Give the backbone structure.
Amino acid sequence: MFSDPVAVSVLEPQQVDQVRVLHDEARAADGVAALSEQALLHLASGPSPAVHLLTYAEGDLAGYAQLPGGPGDGSAELVVGLGWRREGVGSGLLDAVVQKVGAGARLWAHGNLPSARAFASARHLQPVRELHKMARPLTASDAESEVSALLPQGFSARPFLPGRDEDAWLATNAAAFAHHPEQGRMTRADLEDRMAQEWFDPGGFILVEADASPGEVAAFHWTKVDREQRATADPGATAGEVYVLGVHPAHQGRGLARPVTALGLAHLARLGLPEAVLYVDGDNRAALRTYESMGFRSIMVDVMYAPTAQPTLSG
Ligand SMILES: CC(C)(COP(=O)(O)OP(=O)(O)OC[C@H]1O[C@@H](n2cnc3c(N)ncnc32)[C@H](O)[C@@H]1OP(=O)(O)O)[C@@H](O)C(=O)NCCC(=O)NCCS
């Protein structure tokens, strides 16, 4: 038998290890990570808004859920240990999430696996948001692109300078993603968390400045190279990621999106990576079209489910 979920705001080091083991085993079997990068960062980082829910069975961790943004945000991620599926552990965690959050509860199903779809249907969860993962091969011509030839006149590109560019980048990120539920709220602490990660490389964090407004970030392309990100065509190889890309609203509509995308792809191709991947919201038609026109194809969809009568994708 398993316990009712326990809610904590900070995990003990031993609990962090238990969650990592459970998550790694589930990822290996499911082929998809159940927890997002943000949720994984919240496992062991200092103070965070996250709430953790743990279900134990015979002293072992059977299931885990996290509210990465706390109860006020309402979105949750949930994973049940391989040996404990179809025993009601997921249902218990879902009930605990709904109890904490109320009617605004939402649950991410990364990869929208068959188990998640069946669970959603059994528990009357409705899809309310989609996040597409897209991929595209990187070619020799990507690597050979000349930076100066990519950008329109009056703009130049340079790498992010740690210690100098944080505030300017945060301002442009907040403006470019003002309507995005997660990205637009990134704080200095969130940025510094990522800069402290092993994968962080300022050389792959490209800032575009307008000659007319030096010191301000007109657009940016933050790329990420993380060994966990496998190439679709060759799972033995690492794929580079279009991690975050944004154009300041003051510079939108001037054809910057494609050249700024190309700048990052050139960087990733020069590192010898065979493929680029990215994540984009299903309702962001402009971005989906831009990426499709540059050769990206959707390879996986994450679905956010809601248990109540929230607006659904179909209505
Ligand atoms: C989805 C997941 C959380 C379900 O957890 P769980 O503890 O196995 O779910 P429960 O035992 O509470 O299942 C409740 C009902 O959902 C349905 N269900 C769950 N998994 C199912 C599966 N693999 N196949 C068919 N039905 C399934 C069943 O109707 C089940 O009731 P039943 O066993 O009495 O028939 C678990 O499979 C998991 O961790 N998957 C990977 C992570 C993930 O996708 N998370 C997002 C969830 S939206």
Observations:
- The pocket of coenzyme A is lined by residues 26, 30, 34, 78-80, 85-91, 107, 109, 113, 115-116, 118-120, 122, 305 (CB under 6 Å).
- The chain has a mean pLDDT of 93.
- The chain is about 30% helix and 30% strand.
